[in-house]
Specification:
- The protein is α+β, with helices and mostly antiparallel strands.
- It has a single domain (56-272), classed as Nucleotidyltransferase, domain 5.
- The protein is 38% helix and 20% strand.
- It has helices spanning 3-10, 25-41, 71-76, 144-154, 166-181, 196-203, 212-220, 233-243, 247-270; strands spanning 56-59, 62-70, 84-87, 90-96, 100-107, 118-127, 130-138, 160-163, 192-194.
- The longest helix is centred in the last third of the chain and has 24 residues, at 247-270.
């Protein structure tokens, strides 16, 4: 503080305000970006330019995203399977590889009921050239009937379902939608390997839990990276319907793909785990 400012204070006059240098344009731009990012993360604004959803429109309100994985790549990755599968948990059954339908759904909530919406159905199936992953994404409630039709088509023929907790959650959710739209897939009657049950029989006493991600880690030594938790899927779909923001919905599709890949890897590993076989009760001699 100089002598003039001191004299001004003694006389009761306020000193002239200090002149601030103009803000640096580059730092001002960075600060604006950080503020926008903070608002987006808190859900206050939607993405200004949402990324396009993959695939093509199969019907109004329903998109199909299809990806193929060649048999050669699977063999090099050590994921090739025999033409006919015989599993310890179902020893009396032989299932041709092309009949398998590995599937997983993402829904509008974690509890069942008529109000539950299945907005994403992922199916992994084999053809002569490798695995085909199909993701049926409902982009509007008007696409629900087409989604159910796609499910009925996937269950047709000699399909054999493979899931993780699908008997208790995914199949009942799809059957509810079938009833609402007057369709019938026969999913409750066809063959179904729910891998949660053989995993529990083999590892319930040894693992902290029997979630799919735990089975993936314990059996395969594989840790997921930045994966959106499945519990966030309902919010991501609601945000998309309300704002058109696709960022988290795309992450839900990635999570669904990870689950299908994990399902395939865990099934292959379980084929060599005798402890996954059903417990057989011994008949006592009279």
């Amino acid at each position: 503080m100089d002598l003039r400012q001191r004299l001004g204070q003694l006389s009761g006059r306020r000193p002239a305000p200090a002149t601030l240098p103009p803000p640096d344009p580059e730092w001002a731009e960075r600060l604006g970006r950080l503020r926008l990012l903070a608002r987006e993360r808190s859900g206050q604004v939607a993405d200004s330019r949402p990324a396009d959803l993959p695939g093509q429109e199969l019907a109004p309100g329903l998109r199909l995203h299809e990806v193929r994985v060649s048999a050669l790549r699977l063999k090099l990755a050590g994921l090739d399977l025999p033409d006919v599968l015989r599993a310890p948990w179902d020893p009396d059954l032989a299932v041709p590889l092309e009949n398998l339908r590995l599937f997983d759904t993402e829904t509008s909530g974690l509890c069942g009921g008529v109000g539950l919406k299945v907005f994403l159905l992922g199916v992994l199936r084999w053809d002569s050239e490798g695995w085909v992953m199909r993701q049926y994404l409902m982009t509007s409630p008007c696409g629900e009937a087409a989604l159910v039709d796609a499910w009925v088509g996937e269950c047709a023929g000699a399909a054999h379902l493979v899931s993780y907790n699908g008997k208790s959650f995914d199949v009942p959710a799809m059957r509810t939608l079938e009833t609402l739209h007057g369709r019938e897939s026969g999913s409750a009657a066809i063959g179904h390997w729910d891998l949660l049950h053989p995993v529990r029989r083999a590892f319930r006493s040894a693992w902290p839990n029997c979630k799919l991600t735990t089975a993936e880690r314990m059996l395969l030594g594989k840790e997921r990276g930045l994966d959106l938790p499945g519990s966030e899927a309902p919010r991501a779909w609601r945000v998309y319907l309300a704002t058109g923001q696709t960022r988290d919905l795309l992450r839900v599709m990635q999570h669904n793909r990870y689950d299908l890949e994990a399902l395939l890897r865990v099934m292959r590993a379980l084929l060599n785990v005798p402890a996954s076989a059903p417990r057989r009760t011994r008949v006592r001699a009279a």
